[in-house]
Amino acid sequence: MDAVISGIGQSDVGRRLGRSALDLTLDAALEAVADAGLTTADIDGLATYPGGFPGPPGFSGPASPDVQDALRLRLNWHRGGIEGPAQLSAVVDAVLAVHSGLARHVLVYRTVTESSAQGSGGRDGIGLAGGGAPKMGGSLQWSIPFRAYSAANWLALNCRRHMHEFGTTVEQLAQVALNGRRNAQLNPKAVYRDPMDLGDYLSARMITTPFRLFDCDAPVDGSTAVVVSAPGHARHVDHAVARIDALGTALRGRPSWDQFDDATTMAARDAGASLWERTSLTPDDVDIAELYDGFSFLTMVWLEALGFCGRGESGPFVEGGARIALDGDLPVNTHGGQLSAGRLHGFGFIHEAVLQLRGEAGDRQVVRRDGPPEVAAVANGGGPVAGAMLLTREDGR
Amino acid sequence: MTDAPFRVQPALDDDNRFFWTAGREGVLRMARCSQCRHWIHPPAPYCSECGGRDVAPSDLGGRGTVWSYTVNHHSWDGGTEPYVIVLVELDEQPGLRLTSNLVGCDPDQVTIGMPVRVTFEERDDIWYPLFEPAGST
Lengths: 397, 137
Description:
A: nine-stranded mixed β-sheet; B: three-stranded antiparallel β-sheet
């Protein structure tokens, strides 16, 4: 794919920031545009996930027309939507637009205000927000009426099946959460930075077996933006850029939480397979992996789906945590992931991967061959939606 | 069992009404190809096995096994008692699964592979197919 991530930006990230989704989005967008060496007059494409989608409170962020209008963007191409290879679909759309010449510089953003929306209460279940007695149609009718209100419930079923088939343990699952917390302590923007050990993890309240509180990501307010540009722009930028080497977008199994043929990996399996079909790189070439962790189990799913270990082997792979630590063979979720840095819903991983490739990750910077990493894997999504991306470092001017 | 829990209702339409009302007759009913007899769920007017377009509701035996489960502790809907969400694989066809609740069973006693059978909970003439251990009476 001929496209690069030429700039990145991120608003403040935190619990109940008390700022509007549009306000946060503009912070991230303006930072990303300036970082790309551009002005808003240069931006001729706009993409977002999920767009003006009537999702749970705080989930959707501003629709693309709201951002276009605020910044008075003159667009040659624009799009927002939720159907596609998970949150990454907005980046995929942007890459396609740039690659095909529909736009030259596409601003891509994802904004959440789920912490403010949640207020002081607990997280809402899907279908319950706003009270009343809603009626559920579409695919959610097969889960919500059985009080399976959350992806926590749905993925707990997958995780339990993984434990049954492969002997995966709670202590192995914990390593994803503990690794995230260790890394978050080096990330000033992370929302959970207190030290956490296995005892803390195990004593947290049970949500839905086998998931405890710290297996579930932390709702936050925040916006992340990137600029996807035609590759020739790299020589006009005063820092390294991230070349998009390959995209994993396949969905070959059934798009269903409970009918997918292999419930232990689901759509990640297909996204991962298609990623490697589209590159000359191999899993051995990857220096860092930023793997979606809406729930701890999903990072284990991605480790298998992307071929960093065999099917069913993610438990032993993360055992003890050393292999996935910042100084391990494969540093994972180097900013803390959504479990500890906050649920920026996919885009936090993209932002972190680019920071690492550019050598700008501060105290948590991974060093490979005496320099920053050269190849990063990024994964978004879980269950029946998944997308993956390989990024490589390309020097600027 | 304590009081019947809150349940979000399915939105009935011409494609799904047979599924959510079959419990009135005490049976589990799902879409099936009239030609090759393959079960199709969620219902769709196309057979994924033979390409046939003649798909119609048909009765199942209502028996299966627990394919996976989770014991929910978080209060999503105001309920405070832990409850069991199960993924049941039905005996009729490998991979034919339903997400449901396991009732009549201590949450600590549920295991993968446990034989179960359907039982219905009726609310406003919607018949929720739940499952109970097949050994119980």
